[in-house]
Amino acid sequence: MLLIAKTPGLRMPRQLNDIKELGHRLVAHAYPEFDGRDLKIDTGKLRSYGQVRWSDAGGIQIICHQDVMEWPEPALIGLLAHEISHPAEGSSSEEGTDRDVISRGLGHYLAVERAFVDKYGDHIISKGKDRYLGFQSVRELLNDHEQRIMENLLEDFKILPSKETRKFRLIHDTAIHDEIGHSILLIEGQSIRVEGARPNSDIKLLFRDEILYVYADDDVVAQVPWRER
Ligand SMILES: [Zn+2]
User: Fold this and answer.
1) Which of 83, 102, 173, 216 lies at a 20 to 30 A Cα distance from 46?
2) How far is CA 27 from CA 32, 35, 42, 158, 186, in A?
């Protein structure tokens, strides 16, 4: 069991440096294989709460949606842990990524994050091939001690898990793995291969008329049918 959150209260206003510090603390505590790896964290304009991008030899870059700056700290830790678990071995699916977070003793933060973003039940994606674990499933995978910590965090931060389903304004997150000569994007469980994008090219997503356009720098490098949900 890991306790990363320093302050029980909501620290406001939060600075970008606080988020960077949280990310580095997470790696130091729970991701020993990434120790010494360059970890960049920024905020930006996104269609998701978070985006992680990495190459096997290079660093890990995380971009958080601007709104995330105002999230309660445990929910933010849950999101960052999910993003850092993407590059971890064996997590090329959202469910695998969530399970990796839990296996590192960070599941109570993931549960708080899922309660905060109103994912109570599992969020099935990619036509049932993948899923984001909902609050309920994450809670079931916690040990007694982690469950108690989770209950305390929910109480301290006044987060009430609600079974009410809401229409999500944002997709949860995207992951970009830069490999030699191509990149693999993971968006809502759908894997999209992009040829020839340079590792430092600026990848942007544009959703229009039920098509997802992937831009690398200013060129369209992939387009796939996409139904907004
Ligand atoms: Zn993800």
Assistant:
1) 102
2) 7, 7, 16, 27, 22
- Give the predicted TM-score (pTM) of the model: 0.90
- Would strands 171-179 and 182-187 be described as parallel, antiparallel, or unpaired? antiparallel
Counting residues of the chain whose pLDDT is more than 90, the rounded percentage is: 63
Tokens of 135: 């609050």
Determine the residue type at 118.
D
List the end-to-end C-alpha distance of the chain, in Å, as a whole number: 35
Domains (ranges, CATH) in the chain? Answer: 17-156 (3.30.2010.10)
Q: Say if CB 14 and CB 69 are below 8 A apart.
A: yes
The predicted-structure confidence for 62-119, as pLDDT tens digits, reads as follows 999 999 998 999 999 999 999 999 999 766 899 999 999 999 999 999 999 999 999 9
CA of 213 to the centre of ligand 1 (A): 19
Distance CA 130, CA 112 (A): 21
CA dihedral 146, 167, 76, 55 (to 10 degrees): 100
Residues bordering ligand 1, an ion, CB closer than 5 Å: 94, 173
